[in-house]
From TrEMBL:
Gene that encodes the chain: accB
PROSITE patterns documented for this protein: BIOTINYL_LIPOYL
Protein's job: This protein is a component of the acetyl coenzyme A carboxylase complex; first, biotin carboxylase catalyzes the carboxylation of the carrier protein and then the transcarboxylase transfers the carboxyl group to form malonyl-CoA.
Biased composition (Basic and acidic residues): 46-59
Domain Lipoyl-binding: 80-156
CDD domains membership: biotinyl_domain
TM helices/strands, residue ranges: none
Source lineage: Bacteria, Bacillati, Actinomycetota, Actinomycetes, Pseudonocardiales
UniProt-recorded name of the protein: Biotin carboxyl carrier protein of acetyl-CoA carboxylase
Domain of life where this protein originates: Bacteria
């Protein structure tokens, strides 16, 4: 089950009208906890668990140039891992403007390494590499909107 931004808005509206102070929702790929913090309103914590997909490049003779997606959606080189956003939103490479990026091309990562964040409805969700290896390229620019099938970056898995 995937939650859309409209689903999240409906949950928050329902909570606002209820006497509940906390909601904990756990799905296969997502854990969401929302708490009422007195007069300050609601706070939220979320963890998105999605494994990166290993994608293989199509042979050149079968690819149709007219239907070839742009760099963010292009196939990744064989044997590399494409890291996708856990949900749609704006991708940021750093925790805040002016801060150094989480990772750069050439950096070593492991499955739990945070490689960026995705902002959806003012909620920041960390993006984990999902695999141990070396970052070889970024396909989505800092501050660019990314759909769930976009390739944020490519990792060459460690042997």
């Amino acid at each position: 089950m995937d939650l859309t931004p409209d689903d999240v808005r409906d949950v928050v509206r329902a909570l606002d009208g209820s006497g509940l102070d906390e909601l904990h929702l756990e799905l296969a790929d997502l854990t969401l906890t929302v708490r009422r913090e007195g007069a300050a309103g609601w706070t939220a914590e979320q963890e998105v668990r999605r494994r990166p997909a290993v994608e293989r490049a199509e042979p050149a003779e079968t690819a149709d140039p007219a239907s070839t997606p742009g760099p963010a959606g292009a196939a990744v080189p064989e044997g590399t891992v494409a890291v996708h956003p856990p949900l749609l939103g704006t991708f940021y490479r750093a925790p805040q403007p002016g801060a150094p990026p989480y990772v750069e091309v050439g950096d070593e990562v492991d499955a739990e390494t945070v490689v960026g964040i995705v902002e959806t409805m003012k909620m920041m969700t960390p993006v984990h590499a999902g695999v141990r290896g070396t970052v070889t390229e970024f396909r989505t620019a800092n501050g660019e909107f990314a759909d769930t099938d976009a390739v944020l970056l490519v990792v060459e898995p460690a042997p």
